[in-house]
Design goal:
Blueprint: E1 2-10, H1 16-32, E2 41-46, E3 65-71, H2 74-86, H3 91-96, E4 97-106
Antiparallel strand pairs: 1-3, 1-4, 2-3
């Protein structure tokens, strides 16, 4: 399986709790309403703690959260990514989000 991952950072001054509520309601409804018909699984992930990077630097990632949508194959993920990129920006992105990046990743489940 492959995952389409969107990573979000917030605009200054927005309420993270409000953003999470809107994000969860809107984006979850997309998947539940089959707007992404080839999606197999969907998760949203909100950062709750940040650590400094290794090597003594004090820089931190400016990320609020990320969502992952699982697909059976790369072609389905690519078609969905193209569809999302060509859509009009929605209220969630315009009102709350400073940066949104999308990537497609392949993972391997390793039994521990």
């Amino acid at each position: 399986m492959v995952k389409l991952v969107s990573i979000f950072s917030l605009k200054p001054g927005v309420d993270p709790d409000e953003v999470y509520k809107v994000w969860r309601e809107k984006h979850t409804s997309w998947v539940k309403d089959k707007m992404l018909p080839k999606a197999k699984r969907y998760t949203i992930n909100r950062l709750i703690h940040k650590y400094p990077l290794a090597g003594g630097t004090t820089a931190q990632f400016d990320i609020f959260g990320y969502e992952m949508i699982w697909f059976d194959n790369l072609e389905s993920a690519l078609r969905t990514a193209e569809r999302l990129q060509s859509a009009q920006p929605e209220e969630f992105l315009v009102k709350f989000i400073k940066t949104c990046k999308m990537v497609i990743v392949e993972g391997e489940n390793i039994k521990l």
